[in-house]
Amino acid sequence: MARLDMAVDHGQTPDGARENFEKAVAAAQARYTRWLHRLEWSGDRTAVEVSGRGFDVRLSYDERKVYARGTIPMAFKLLEGPIQAFIARALK
């Protein structure tokens, strides 16, 4: 297992960040249903715990950044750069 600790500037208003964050999570959930076994939202919907076979990641956002923190398979760690680029594109 590898540690994931990523932050991406979102460059959006708080309302825009919230809307795009929720859309991105919903799109990932629909597209990767097979791999995403559990999604648990925080009460204020600024974070979601995403779990599946071999990974456990907390996705969150604040007024400046989107964060991904948790544990992932080592093979995914090698894709950290492309994953970060994907997150940035998904939020725009």
CATH topology: TATA-Binding Protein
Work out the helicity level. 25-40%
Low-confidence stretches: none
Element string (H = helix, E = strand): EHEEEEHH
CATH architectural label = 2-Layer Sandwich
Rounded to an integer in angstroms, the radius of gyration calculated over CA atoms is 12 Å
Which structural category do the helix and sheet elements fall into?
alpha+beta
Note the beta-strand portion: 35-45%
User: Kindly state the mean pLDDT as a whole number?
Assistant: 87
| Count of discrete alpha- or pi-helical segments spanning 4 or more residues | 3
State the name of the first-level CATH class: Alpha Beta
Bulk shape: globular
Tally of strands: 5
Distance between the termini: 30 Å
Strand order of the biggest β-sheet: 1-5-4-3-2
Largest sheet: 5 strands, antiparallel
Summarize it:
It contains three helices and five strands, in the order βαββββαα. With 92 residues, the protein is of the alpha+beta class. The chain is globular and about 35 Å long.
Report what the structure shows.
This protein is an alpha+beta fold and 92 residues long. The chain has a single domain, classed as 2-Layer Sandwich (TATA-Binding Protein). It contains 3 helices and 5 strands, in the order βαββββαα. Strands 1-5-4-3-2 form a 5-stranded antiparallel sheet. The radius of gyration is 12 Å and the shape is globular. The termini are far apart.
